Amino acid sequence: MTRLKSMMLGALAGTTMLAGAALADGHGLKGDLKIFSDMSNPAPRAVMEGMVERFGEMHPDLNIELTVIDREAYKTQIRNFLTADAPDVANWYAANRMRPYVDANLFEDISDIWEGQLSEELASTKGAMTLDGKQWGVPYTYYQWGVYYRKDIYEELGLSEPTNWDEFKANCQAVLDSGKKCFTLGSKFLWTAAGWFDYLNMRTNGYQFHADLTAGKIEWTDERVKATFNNWKELVDMGAFIDDHTAYSWQESLPFMTNGDAAAILKGNFAVAPLREAGLDDSKLDFHQFPAINGDVELAEDAPTDTFHIPANAQNKDNARAFLKFVVSAENQTMINSGDALGQLPVNSKSSVDDDKFLKEGFAMLSANSPGGVAQFFDRDAPAEMAKVAMEGFQEFMVKPDELDRILAKLDRARERIYK
Amino acid sequence: MTDAALSAARAERGYWQRNQQTLAPWLFLAPGILFFVFYVIYPVFQSFNLSLYEWDGLGAKEYVGMRNYEDLYWEFKDGDAFYTALKNNVLWLFLYLLAIPAGLFIALFLNQTVTGIRLYKSLFFFPFVISQVVVGLVFTWFYDPAFGGLNLLLGWFGMGPINVLGDEKYVTYGVIAAGLWPQTAYCMILYLTGLNGVNPEQIEAGRLDGAKGWRMLWHVVLPQLKPATFIAFVVTIIGALRSFDLISVMTGGGPYGSSRVLAYYMFEVALSEYGFRMGYGAAIAVVLFLIMLCFIAYFLWSMYREEKR
């Protein structure tokens, strides 16, 4: 397998002709391809196995070895296998979560395959894959965050989707007056509260502020951070969130919404599947973008991106590059992100989005109504250690909003230690 | 065989034959000792060493001297994470000891001959047999603020729902209570076997002298149960110091870190998804090791004293 051939294949990969062309010409890849994947939940696992099968059919002479590792266990195992027994392709996450491995020279710089066509087709996620001006992997899926609400409850109370902060709070007050809670939340595992912080912060101070804060350039005791928390405090003081949210995981917090005890949830699109399974069909469940708070800042969204990378110690990097190009090809993107597969958004702009209410709304929102930028998520944009300390602070704040100054001082001490 | 032949044979015996008796036990012990040294003793010193460095597990190690310990000291002074973990460890140490009297009384209660007593004994022992993870899950559901059994129970008495695992005031007690359930069963079994060895003649003699109830228990039965009490004490103290699985399953250290103990805090900073401060984790491990060392030294010393008598 020469480099030239793999480049040619890569160029073809963007087109839908690839499968036919490769089979007809008999130009298959040869050798081995070892893939470690964290797509261990049933639907993602089927997607991963399907991709390997189709890639294998295109390259009959290629020996592909797929190892699927439990998603949580993978997060610690990756450190071992990247140094000791590197596969050719590995899953991970975009943005700052790549930083430790990029700094330790464990991820391969794959800016070469991003040149030209790919950069155009994957423009929306290119920034998330770029560190130090180079690209270190390719995305394969992403999903929007936003407010998923009980349409029937809103209609019953005569409420409409809020377009600004005052309406947002007025809606909430109306829900509270009807004896329900505005938002369900399960903050036991901390990151759910970070979703609230991200949105309140990006609506109060904008995307660039979010980026600077997670990069450690801004003190946590800054007045602008306090402004974010003051907006949050308004909601907490209203009693907008369910009681005892510290005791629940996000899955355990969903019944409050399906039972009608809470009217909405701020969550990623992955919440739709369990909510539908619990009996909320499209007449009862709807989506709206988190409304503007500060009119001066552009709307920006959280849209976490999951990725594929080539470890620097990989043995078959050419094969791996071909696989990465196959993953992001328009046709494959349409296929793996469809409603019966991952049910998320394709990263390739030439792919088509599945005919699903939430995916369509999310896609429209991210492509047309997110001028400020697209963030990954608090715990992916901030270094892992800072994320942990800060998310504990968010949870503590939601329980003890009056101790904000002490909490922020603690976060800033951590910031001084972590970003050196 | 003549004397001459015997002495000739003795002279022919090599080093191995002459010292077989003394060497054999060491040879049998050798694999065990080797593994113990390599997998237990050596890592202890490695941890000591690592606690003087700053290392993320990937890049180069940076020597920082005692700074990790200084950080721990400041965390302690500020009442931060390390202080909470240490305080919770102390709580665990004391409250976990409740398993010993509880186990003793259940053992006394079950130490009778009634039909089906074996079944009751095994039912009481059951929580020790099932995995700690299962115990943790069961108690998590029991404590659930919305539909858990505990709040149902409290509701009958007109008391408000309490969020045991989500409130910093109750969470550690809630987890310890879950831990006491299997630990009590363990102590009970220790005492049940101990009670089998109680000398009936001494009980008889005590009864003739008019001892009853508490006096009988305190002055006649308990002294005979001393070995069982000692073992129960050892396993409970060690169990309290290594409490980890219940915290991991039930709270994950939360809410906002208020149910952490040292072992869990070490895991969190060094090995969890958001961690990888290896040196800092090692420093916490060293502190935990020193605390354990006090107890272990005391246990070894009292065992040694006992054997000398």
Characterize this entry briefly.
Chain A has 420 residues and is an alpha/beta fold. In chain A, 50% of the residues lie in helices and 14% in strands. In chain B, 74% of the residues lie in helices and 1% in strands.
Task: Characterize the structure shown.
The complex is a heterodimer of chains A (420) and B (309). Chain A has 420 residues and is α/β, with parallel strands linked by helices. Chain A has 21 helices and 13 strands. Chain A has helices at 3-13, 18-25, 42-58, 71-83, 99-103, 111-114, 117-121, 123-129, 151-156, 165-177, 191-205, 207-214, 223-238, 250-258, 272-277, 317-328, 330-336, 357-368, 378-381, 384-399, 404-418, and strands spanning 31-37, 62-68, 89-93, 130-131, 134-135, 138-142, 145-150, 181-183, 262-268, 285-288, 300-302, 305-309, 373-375. In chain A, the strands form 4 sheets. A 5-stranded mixed β-sheet of chain A has the order 2-1-3-12-6, sandwiched between helices. In chain A, helix 11 (191-205) crosses helix 12 and helix 20 (384-399) runs antiparallel to helix 21 (404-418). Mean pLDDT of chain A is 87; it is low at 1-26. Chain B is an all-alpha fold and 309 residues long. Helix content of chain B is 74%, strand content 1%. Chain B has 15 helices and 2 strands. Chain B has helices spanning 3-12, 15-50, 67-77, 81-96, 99-110, 117-129, 132-143, 149-156, 171-196, 200-208, 213-224, 226-241, 245-250, 262-271, 278-308, and strands spanning 53-54, 62-63. Chain B has a two-stranded antiparallel sheet. In chain B, helix 2 (15-50) packs across helix 15, helix 6 packs across helix 9 (171-196) and helix 7 packs across helix 9 (171-196). Chain B is flat. The model of chain B has no long low-confidence stretch (mean pLDDT 88). The chains are: A alpha/beta (420), B mainly alpha (309). The A-B interface holds A 72, 75-76, 79, 83, 100-101, 103-104, 106, 187-190, 243-248, 379, 384-385, 387-388, 392-393, 395-396, 399, 410, 417 and B 56-59, 71, 80, 143-146, 161, 163-168, 251-252, 254-257, 268, 271-277.
